Amino acid sequence: MLKKNDLVQLKITSTTAEGSGVGHTSDGMAVFVPMSATGDELSVKILKVKKTYAFGKLEEILTPSPARIEPDCPNFSKCGGCVWRHVSYSEECRIKEQKVRDAVERIGGINTEIKPIIACERTDRYRNKAQLPVGRDRNGKVQIGFYSFHSHRIVDCADCALQPEQFGEVIRITREFIDRYGVSVYDESTGKGRLRHLYLRCAEITGELMVCYVVNGNGLKNEDILIKNLREALPNLKTVVFNSNREKTNVILGSKNRVAYGEGVIEDELCGKRFCISPFSFWQVNRSQAEKLYTKALEYANLSGRENLLDLYCGTGTIGLTMADGCKTLTGVEIIPDAVCDAEKNAERNGVKNARFICADAPAAAEQLRQEGVSPDVVILDPPRKGCGEELVGTVAKMNPDRVVYVSCDPATLARDLKYFAERGYVTREVTPCDMFPRTAHVETVVLLSRKMPDDKIEVDLSLDELDITSAESKATYQEIKDYVLKEYGFKVSTLYISQVKRKCGIIERENYNHSHKENPHSSQCPKDKENAIRAALEHFGMI
Ligand code: SAH
Hints:
The protein is of the alpha/beta class. The protein is built from 13 helices and 21 strands.
């Protein structure tokens, strides 16, 4: 029996997506070992034993995995950021692809090819934002850095390899200022002390830098000197903001900003559009990789210029706005009022005239829009980690878009939602992982879905008496469908339109229904609102 403190030799045979290797003891017990790699042969000290698995600590590398590299950051394994600094980037990409594949297959029950991950050209210095807690250690030494894994202990960090070098300069100047002027720093346990966080942003294309100090109060004594020091050292400094957060909370930013230098905003570019970024705005932290992600999303949206686009969870409107030139109308939905405000301003600054933004909960707004008869051709979904959920997926499916483009930051909730879509007739056509955050455990995914077509290959397992192909067709007459639509929707639909929708739904036309002289490539196509009404009738009569 394995016990705590045992020393075992293990061969690591697989890796979890969260950064642990997994090996098995001779009696079949799985042992999770952080910072190990597939192929490693290790000496491992057992830390905790559960019924069917255990956790261990790497004591010695006996034979290294071919994928192993030397970690190049002194804080690796201490701060809560990177988990893949000890393996090659190609190995990291393989693990991330596997994470997406596992989720889609096991949770989503979907068997589809996973496209190669869109890798990131830069694995260091790709972030444009940092949120650094400020504190003191037991000896009173100032600590500015990151929380360690699953804790609020600050790991001091003079320079993080994922961030621009100039953030290190801001840290240095701030540390010096705190020491020289005896600035009090915030203590989470007592709720006392002034300086809480450094919140930094820099724009990749314009080079503009924003420094925001989160303070338990209004500002800092001698802050003019601090600003002068920053301006002298950093010529690209565009603005300094003091954010006031007096709450005893884990939420970093408070609700009030005071601009102490500049305009309180910086500007950057994404897919040829200009965006204005305040401390509150959501902005992708890896800008150049976001461009690649959006380019893939645009490819999946396959716009011709005639589409009505619905962008749910739109943030400051970035995805939709980068697509606005290619579609007829754009409707964005976002729950945070400031983000909606930014989205409107961003539309204006880029001369986008076909967009509107709604501040609301996405599932509720989608249902409201559906009831108003809004029928988008393409829906973009970009929810937070918890995903869209069954209610929203149901509403989107009822809106009957031709295509759904789903951008996700959590493969598990994505896979769950793909299953909900599958149950409602939407097929996952293509899945592309995208590495927005090299060296960390995160992976983003973009997926194309579209409605199941009659000629889609499906595998069926039917007994003969279930095989009653004509029953669907004979359930309601064309007149009954017309009457139903008139009663429920208040408009008339033609036999031609009904037959078009029936064919789209895979209902086999009766042989004696002669449609050939009516339906030719030049005959008018059923408009979306009528198609939806006819589909509702077919559903009502149990034909689909
Ligand atoms: N599509 C944007 C933002 C994606 S992040 C971009 O790429 O930049 C997810 C967004 O969903 C955040 O802006 C968050 O505020 C918003 N959000 C979270 N819950 C929501 C809800 N219930 N309804 C609408 N928006 C929500």
